[in-house]
Design a protein that fits this description.
By secondary structure, this protein is an alpha+beta fold. Helix content is 29%, strand content 30%. It has a single domain, classed as Aminopeptidase (3-Layer(aba) Sandwich), CATH 3.40.630.30. The chain is built from five helices and seven strands. It comes from Mycetocola lacteus.
Amino acid sequence: MIPIALIRPARASDAAAIGAVHARAWQETYRGDVPDAVLDDPEEPRRRADMWGKMLSRPIGSDRFLNVAEIAGTMVGIAMSGPAEEPDVPGASELKVLYVLAEQHGTGLGARLLNSVLDPDSLAVLWVLDPNPRAQRFYRKHGFVPDGAAQAWEYDTREIRMVRAGKWHPRPGDVTA
């Protein structure tokens, strides 16, 4: 039997687990794009836990969502959204974070987390590393398309922006993770 993941709002007490998932997901996702010294720094999970702890110590707000996924009490994914900061997409929500540990890829958990923080009936944007074919394929399957915007990202890399018009719903048979 495949264990079912619980998706729930993050709590302040989750900061260390969120930091650990965030750091591990970066290792699994960005190896080759981010310097190994950054990815393998033993202090990185603690730094990320501190960052998340500060964020979770403040009220998140009714227009922001930070959810986590757990299987048998172990955190395996995180997702966060909030208002887009892009002036050319007024009223859009922005997917700011979506990480699922590699062992959960293909299980549908990424789709569940995405849908837990973004309303499929509203305009949404996100920035994704380019190239990152797996992530870009996933977002395309969920109605996002590149809109031509790009920006420099850390470590001499770049991101592209993807946008999803409102009222998008998966079609029967669409792959969701």
